[in-house]
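COMPLEX REQUEST
Ligand: zinc ion
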Amino acid sequence: MVTWLDYLDRAKEYHGHLCSGQILGLRMVLKGLSLLSLDPEKPQRDLMLFIETNRCLADAAYVVTGITIGRRRLIMYNFGKAAMTFLDLNTRQAYRVAATSHIKPAKDVTDLIGFWSQYADEDIFLIQEVVVPLKPEDLPGRPQRRITCPICGEDVLDGRDVNSKDGPICRACAGEAYYKALPLKRQIGPF
Ligand SMILES: [Zn+2]
Ligand SMILES: [Zn+2]
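STATUS: Structure written out below.
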């Protein structure tokens, strides 16, 4: 049976350094897989991951599962929390695993492997069985819905559009844009 120690080299190479986030992440993913009785050494065809941070921990999820964001089976909710939910699309069973807040190495601890080896999963994780409601358009596979936003002319897939008095529009045109466009002369493209 593989353990988190078997993944350390790969995690260090992929992430760039070995940190508590990698160790916690590797252990969290292996715990999630074992709760769902999934074998970490096999391709994860039925696993969907919900990751609550875009920090170190998230890279460890890729190292163990190989699941990439473009496969639509990795969803990031940036709640800023060291937690992940593991959903088996086949059985719909799901577990959320979160790091407890009271165990962390002091700043001067250099042996992180030694530090985290002292604790059992039960000491460092809170585990809940959960239900993750999914819409058909959230599932992996071909797009279930595609609209063209009448305001910007861009296509929106997977039901990510919102209703307006003019019909379905994209989230950016609905006022949810994370960017602000510069004046037209700075843009490139057909007008
Ligand atoms: Zn890191
Ligand atoms: Zn639009």
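REMARKS: Residues 149, 151-152, 154, 169-170, 172-173 surround zinc ion (ligand 2) (CB under 6 Å). The longest strand covers residues 83-88.
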